[in-house]
Amino acid sequence: MSRRAWPHPVVLSLLLSGQALWGQIVFAPGGGPALTPPPSTSKPEDRCVVQGHVSNAITGEPVRKANIRLTRQNVAPNAGNTSQGPQGYSTISQADGSFKIENIEPGNYHLSGDRAGYLLTEYGSKGVGQGGRTITLRPGQQLTNISLGLTPQGVITGKVLDQDGDPVAGAMVQLVVEMWQRGKLRHIMQNGANTNDLGEYRIANVRPGKYYLVAQIMRFSPNGEPPAEPGKPDIRPVRTFYPEATAIGGATPIQVRAGQELTGTDIRLHSTATYHIRGRIVGAIPDNPSDRITVSAAARDEQDPMWTIGGGTSVTKDRTFDIAGLAPGSYTLTVFTAGRGIRAFGRQDVEVGQADVSDVQISIVPPTTLHGQVMFEGNPPAGASPVSLKNVHVYLAPAEAMMFGGNMNGVPGDDGNFTLDNLAPGKYYLNVNAPAGTYLKSVRLGNQDILGREFDLAQGTAPISVILSYGVAELDGVVQFPQSGTDSGDAGPNGQPNATPDAPVVLVPDKLNEDGSGLRFGTSGAGGAFTMKNLPPGHYRAYALERLDFNELQNPDVLKELEIKGTDVELNQNDKKQIQLPLITTGDLQQIYTKLGIEVSQQ
Hints:
This protein is globular. A hairpin with a 6-residue loop joins strand 7 (107-114) and strand 8 (121-122). The strands form 10 sheets. Strands 38, 39, 40, 41, 42, 43 and 44 form a 7-stranded mixed beta sheet that branches. It has 4 domains: 10-27 and 154-363, Immunoglobulins (Immunoglobulin-like), CATH 2.60.40.10; 44-150, Immunoglobulins (Immunoglobulin-like); 368-470, Sandwich (Immunoglobulin-like), CATH 2.60.40.10; 473-596, Carboxypeptidase-like, regulatory domain (Immunoglobulin-like, Sandwich). The protein is mainly β.
């Protein structure tokens, strides 16, 4: 596959200075970064043309003003690409859906399109969010009959009502999907929308699939709230799942088809007795005194770490806080500062029962510094230059929600030493990119092996030792397509690419890392051939898939069922092996999903 496509946007909720501020980090919709045309190295008569038509994949109607992108694949590092960005060409479809790109350098490309109201779609993909096929352009070729069908977005609309049936303005409604991460089924927040003054919401850009809906009223009290009237419970609306459940276990899922608009999806907020968490900040916050200090309460579930903000408040001058409106449950309190960026300095878990919780203390943990060293093991291949430390990138990934700030990535110096400083307390994963020709062999924290494992970053942490080793392996092979023979991905005589699609190739090690890493991905090209380089030595099961669902490949039950369809591969250092892989079709995968009771959208 050309890239690992993360299937959904992520909505990040931040409570900042004096009010609830919502920001979206969107990874999927839109055409991506601007394309820079490749450097022109061919003769004018050897340049290529791609011409075609964009239509609605459901109705067949032409799509005008679609953003068409032809992105070059397999560009060697520094091969004349000084833009530090993707190479390729772009254009806009005409009123009749037609498009034309001229003066294209020969090479391998992926074609994609999108526009408002439609989902980003790659040419030749097996479904929304799936990678497409490679188009190989030989010198002077012209592809004139490309058909690109864009899938229209799904839309969900409805109202948020209180228990009396009155509209609730300013409520936040979010989509929730089930995804496998780190071997566990988790619920992940997706894109959402706020309700207007009529209590109405509209969530657009929804991909086909199964979702849950959750609504809540965000409360942020700058100076705390007075206690409820003595002798009377503080009844308030609380986080509610569609149609009116207080937990996701009682929620009704929603199935969205391509281009479908679901209307009347109303959520009736459940009201219950709520309580306060009151306490004090202990310790000095090492930041600008003018920064606003905030405490937020995020609801948590130890079995399923889906989190939502339950409320928050500013910290008073005497370092006390009072968060109101919290339903019984488990919460994580986090101390933030907002000013010169967002920083988290203290965390405390709190259980709320049937009464206010008082005298909570949140200890400030000063930011810490992580030191480490990157070392190389072995020798580069004969005639190859040693890998430069400048091409090594070290970065931290938070293992917990609500962790921000600090310098979480860096490049080692000439001596291999690196420093990540100003880090908030909490649990992390350390990731290191291995430059071409090397693989990540070991990451140790003192005597502890933390390669792909969670570790707790506390003040005084021992230095980290990272070992990158030469001796990578290479795996070459051919995917055997049913009834396809040896068709190539090149252009055929009729101005269209031939029928053989790209097929994702996956190598699964005997044991995945705790953070879900360890899978290796490749893609077959012309005639089903593929090459996977820079592979760590080890034992793998190899699969060629008609459709790649990265989410389900994190499901241990699916991996177990796939084992009989895989091919064993043992790779030693500097190995170069060849294999043949039968294609596992979408129908084969669907049989596994059906057996396991898994609902997977095939659109």
